[in-house]
Amino acid sequence: MKAIFNHFNSLGGLYNVSQENLLDTRIFNDEIKLIEEYLKRDIPKLLWNILKKYQGHGFNDEVGFNVTTNIPILGNSTFLEFGQFLSLCQEASLYLLDVLENNSDIFGHDFLPFAEATPGDYIALNISEQSVYFISHVFSDNEQSQIKIANSLKDYFLHLCKHTEENRILEKTPRITSVEYSNDLLSLMQKWKNKETSNKER
User: What residue stretches are annotated with the Knr4/Smi1-like domain (predicted)?
Assistant: First the structure.
């Protein structure tokens, strides 16, 4: 836990998005119990501690996670923004239990969202796997709504990073995504390959 808290501080710390997010310990514990009853599972201790300290908080700087899996909504970018931790306060706009219940078709009882990423999309823990997923609410028929981005909560939190100018430049740099060869070029390549094969056989 200490390593994660120290890492968060190194990223510029967090702030309480709204005074509505202020909870005493009794109300926090009651909200955790409601979530666990809904999921019919216990919330892992690490996430429990993170939510206890940071529910309803966002980073002071632009912070996110560099994904290695393609996420269509990001376009050319690999930087998945961290919006804010969901709140356990019932009056908050991003009240965790509401997010769970209103998106039961994509979360079910396997995923526990703990943060908003891009607006309307979430970062969630797969409770069975203990891995972290990006959950999108808008996706086409040939796209996944649940994309694994980290093997564990610890891995995810410790690899959060600031969105640097270097990241932005890389995102604007055109990337080759597919290559097509003309028939003439393919024919030349085949002739060269045949010639090389013939030479090796001599």
Answer: 30-157
* Cα dihedral 13/161/102/152 (nearest 10): -110
pLDDT of residue 179: 41
- Give the CA distances from residue 71 to residues 46, 116, 126, 148, 185, in Å, rounded to whole numbers and listed in that order: 26, 15, 18, 10, 33
How far apart, in Å, are the Cα atoms of 170 and each of 4, 141, 164, 167? 27, 29, 10, 5
Which residue intervals of the chain are DSSP H helices? 2-10, 25-39, 45-54, 96-102, 104-107, 153-158, 165-172, 183-201
d(C-alpha 67, C-alpha 72), whole Å: 12
- Judge whether 73 and 159 are in contact, CB under 8 Å: no
Measured torsion, CA atoms of residues 107, 110, 114, 118, in degrees rounded to the nearest 10: -40
Q: Is the pLDDT of residue 95 over 60?
A: yes
What distance in Å separates the CA atoms of residue 186 and residue 183, rounded to the nearest whole number?
Answer: 5
In the sheet that holds 84-85, the strands lie side by side as 84-85, 111-116, 122-126, 131-135, 146-150
With contact defined as beta carbons under 8 Å apart, do 31 and 64 qualify? no
| Backbone φ, ψ for residue 79 (5° rounding) | -95, 110
pTM for the model stands at 0.79
